[in-house]
Amino acid sequence: MRTIIDWVRHHKEDLFRFFLFVLTVTILVFLLPTERKFGFEYRKGAPWMHDDLIAPFDFAIQKDGDLLEKQRDSVQRKAEVYYRFNDDAFIHLDSLFNQQIERRFNAFVDSTSINYELQNELNFALDSIRLFYSNILHHGVVDTLIRDEASKQKENFLIRKNVSYEMTGELMTPDMAVDHLLKVVSNFNASGPKVSRFFRLLNFSDYIRPTAIYDERTTQDNYNRLVNSISTTSGMIQRGQRIVGRGELVNGKTFRIIESLRKEYESDQGIGNIKDLLITGKVVVISMAIGVLFLFLIYFRREVLKQRVKSYFIVFLLLLMVLAAALTSNAENINIYVVPIAIMPIIIQIFYDPRLAIFVHMVTIVIIGFIVPNSFEFVFTQFVVGVVAILSLRQMHRRQQIFFAAMAVFLTYSLVYSGLTLMQGGDINQLEPMQYAWFAGNSMLILWSYPLIYLFEKMFGFLSDVTLMELADTNHPLLRKLNETAPGTFQHSMQVANLAEAVIYKIGGNPSLVRTGALYHDIGKMNNPEYFIENQSPNRNPHDNHTFEDSARIIIDHVKDGIKIAKQYNLPKPVIDFIRTHHGDSLVQYFYRSHINQFPDEVVDEMLFRYPGPTPFSKEMGVVMMADSVEAASRSLKTMNEDTIDNLVDNIANYIIREDQLIDADITFKDVTVAKDIFKEKLKNIYHARIEYPEEKK
Predict the structure, then answer these.
(1) How far, in whole angstroms, is CA 56 from its chain's centroid?
(2) 125, 191 in Cβ contact below 8 A?
(3) Which position among 5, 177, 432, 493 has the lowest Cβ density within 10 Å, counted as fewest Cβ atoms?
(4) Domain spans of the chain?
(5) What is the pLDDT of residues 537-563, one digit of tens each?
(6) 332 pLDDT exceeds 80?
(7) 386-409 confidence digits (pLDDT tens)
(8) 465-697 CATH, one of 1.10.3210, 2.40.10, 3.90.1520, 1.10.1740
(9) CA-based nearest residue to 441, from 348, 361, 345, 335
């Protein structure tokens, strides 16, 4: 049991990588659809580039989508409209009308002296109007009149007691029925002024209400029935039948047949028997893709795997992009190209480097290619867009660079899409304007890179060039305080930043990180500025009042004090690491040797004169250590000339290497040689400037 625990402890980092690998593969297997994939790429109007396609089973030829849409439109134009007759309303209105007519007729006869002949004529007119009124209501006064181009071809039916009857003639609303009834009444006004007066007393609008209510449910059910009765197929292909041969042009008919085969092949029918095999294949393919990514990190970017947060971040971005693509591909009316996949390489480049960004981007789009249709076109398009996005935003020093990158992404999408469409179809009319709108939406989402970078900085503790430039501003409160409290240290830090930045430009690295780290590496000296040579006056050295051990402790404490001050000002951890490592675990040479010389017989505890470390663990930190040592030592040169400068730089570099201070800093012997040459050149420039301008020496 003890052996197993020791083995786990010894291989915990390898176990972490294996666990992260398994977790990533598992999530991707869950996100990718479990379905058979039609293993052919084809396009209408292009040659068939594969072997002869033979039907593996019987299947029906699906109709073209445009044809089905036309048939549905035809049904929509001709589908019947149904109304439901309201018997209660008809009986009530008819009875009310007859009662009111009778009452008004009697009152009119009593109040008007008319002869018997005129009275009979009025009776006849009223009977005719009653009959006409009843016929109007019985035919159906509708509550809703459908008026559009399609309604001209529609038939209207009236449902009475669950039996439908065709409604002939023009349909009338209440207002139309009143107007029609008034026209009939006008034919009887010629009988004389007294009869006309009687008809004027009648208000027909009070007795006409809808008796035929629009039956939306029955109308819609009938439409759905007609649509469902439309056949979606137009023929059959028998098993073994040759569909298309190599080199043959895929015309419209052949394209529909191949599309029908693809849909049938990728359908769920019969998939249950092979589901385990589909999942197994998916696990193998995804494991290979993620395995390639992990191998790249192991061989070329091992420091990413050593820091778990960085590993989590890469996996998080990859899974986020795949999830967005999976959700979009399953959504209706959303184009897959609206997903801003180019955000991923942009962000990875800002926090890491372009090589890692393009590699992660390639692995991601290949995995997404198993989800989307026309995977080759998708992968090619996204690859080109990703490369352009990386090249257009190599360093984000200004906010407008994001806008330039978004514009470059839009133009690249548009050019690649236009080129592929013209190459495959040879017809400019095949270019869809809506596709460019999706590309524009994608580019707008690219603008979210800026707030996402800030968010990821806070979540994962990263640093972007924008934040580094803000921190490197000498108006930053902490740098202003350093300049006021320890002006000599501030000038020393500026010189270290210039030296280190010049070196890192030559050997490779992050210049912004080097400059920022160098500016803050000595902020701990603010607590006791007078104890450091760059802040001392010529005739006073406070170390004269302390023992060598106490002086060494004060010097060493500036590292601890710097870390404490940096945390108070919420400096990012990568910047604090420069404070922690700029002396590594080296000795405070002056006081250590002074103590040995004064007390040669005493056993000296080196730990009292040694910085706590750790040693630099990045190229940028190692360069700052060398630049700091060289710049500080150059201030103590009694005689400054080209020979003393060369000896100084060589001795310091040799001491740092001999003390193994750069063993974890990823700095090669060639890098050290380049750094030494640059240090010598910069210091000699200062020396020659002092000779040429003697007043500067003062």
Answers:
(1) 40
(2) yes
(3) 5
(4) 2-35+274-460, 74-227, 465-697
(5) 777 788 888 888 889 899 999 999 999
(6) no
(7) 999 998 876 666 667 888 889 999
(8) 1.10.3210
(9) 335
